[in-house]
Specification:
By secondary structure, this protein is α+β, with helices and mostly antiparallel strands. The protein has eleven helices and 15 strands. The chain is elongated.
Length: 373
């Protein structure tokens, strides 16, 4: 029996740093994104990318999370028990069995874009498997505003997978082939996947080539996304995340329609969510030397504020949780102006022989505050 080719299927992969000795790391954090179409795992060791994976999401979220982290850990010598803190994100975030915390993918994409492309990014477009999100963020990657598209596969990765199977074209080739036309055709009239399939078949029966149909569909997807961005506004710098960011047929047409070039990064666009989640999992404050000192688990923090008055140099304050745009929870944080000099400001409280714990840690009943000393 002839093997059936699945044109929609993209290549799964994993990677780990061949020269990094993770056993020498002080802080090992991971992020797990169980999305509607793909699942990713990413591991940071002392703030540097050590390993990652990208697999197809299965029917079971816990299994998908376990498969993703096992793929990232393969041949590294590291085990799940070595991960000090893990953030789950994506549609299946609450079902990551080994996660310490679940955070919305909106917050993770914003923080990931900040990590991948720098603090100047202000607008993030996540073109995912079954939805699109337009996000505004500040220089720290904190979400300031966002919008999502309607619950429809049109304008998403799943819609492109359907078109790949319909036209019998490998999904990785769609973007480039969509430019191999003599003249740019008009976009398909409907970006609903079901109707677009019918229209595509009708266009081919009328003499259109597959490349022309691809060009028309990519153009329709780009236009649909541009309307979403238009509702929230596009602020410079502009960064695209998600699997569709790898499709030049959509990205270039979107850039042309917006009149803006998206910021490029050497990082894999599909890992923005996990990179953001891992950075949040590595949620600690470092001084100018890059050394980690204070971490605050905002899941454990109950907003009591008892840590603020007991800190002799008044490092701490109570603010809205910058990593959860859907919550109005107040949590402890290190004051912005103090974050680059913690090593010196905290020095008078450094534990010594015969001394008790740090005042901030002793005052924190939930145990939310950690310190590298």
């Amino acid at each position: 029996m002839a093997e059936i080719q699945e044109y929609w299927r993209w290549t799964e992969y994993s990677w780990h740093h061949p020269e990094m000795d993770w056993r020498q790391g002080k802080r090992i954090a991971s992020g797990i994104d169980v999305g509607s179409v793909s699942s990713q795992a990413l591991i940071l060791v002392d703030g540097q990318i050590f390993a990652f994976s990208n697999l197809r999401t299965g029917s079971n979220s816990p299994d998908s999370a376990n498969n993703a982290i096992k793929a990232a850990l393969k041949d590294t010598g590291m085990e799940i028990k070595d991960l000090q803190y893990t953030v789950g994100t994506g549609y299946g975030r609450v079902n990551v069995p080994f996660a310490n915390r679940a955070i919305t993918e909106i917050a993770c994409h914003a923080r990931g874009a900040n990590f991948m492309a720098g603090p100047k990014v202000r607008t993030v477009l996540d073109m995912g498997g079954q939805d699109c999100k337009a996000i505004h963020c500040d220089e720290r990657g904190k979400v300031t505003n966002f919008l999502m598209n309607d619950k429809c596969a049109a304008g998403t990765g799943r819609g492109m997978e359907v078109m790949a199977d319909l036209l019998s074209i490998p999904i990785k080739d769609i973007g480039d082939l969509s430019f191999q036309v003599d003249k740019e055709p008009a976009p398909v009239s409907s970006t609903c996947v079901v109707f677009a399939k019918s229209e595509a078949l009708g266009l081919m029966r009328s003499g259109w080539s597959k490349n022309m149909v691809l060009a028309a569909y990519c153009s329709a997807m780009a236009h649909r996304v541009s309307l979403l961005l238009g509702r929230i506004g596009v602020e410079d710098q502009f960064f695209i995340t998600g699997g569709i960011a790898k499709n030049p047929g959509i990205v270039k047409r979107l850039e042309q329609e917006l009149g803006i070039q998206a910021v490029k990064s050497q990082h894999d666009s599909q890992h923005a969510d996990t990179e953001g989640g891992t950075v949040i999992a590595n949620y600690g404050y470092k001084d100018g030397s890059g050394e980690f000192f204070i971490s605050i688990d905002t899941d454990k923090c109950n907003g009591c504020g008892d840590c603020v008055p007991v800190c002799p140099p008044r490092l701490l304050e109570m603010v809205a949780d910058q990593y959860d745009p859907l919550s109005d929870k107040i949590v402890a944080a290190v004051r912005e102006e103090e974050r680059k000099k913690i090593k010196y400001t905290c020095a008078p409280c450094k534990p010594a022989s015969g001394r008790g714990p740090l005042p901030c840690m002793a005052a924190c009943e939930p145990g939310a505050i950690g310190h590298s000393w």
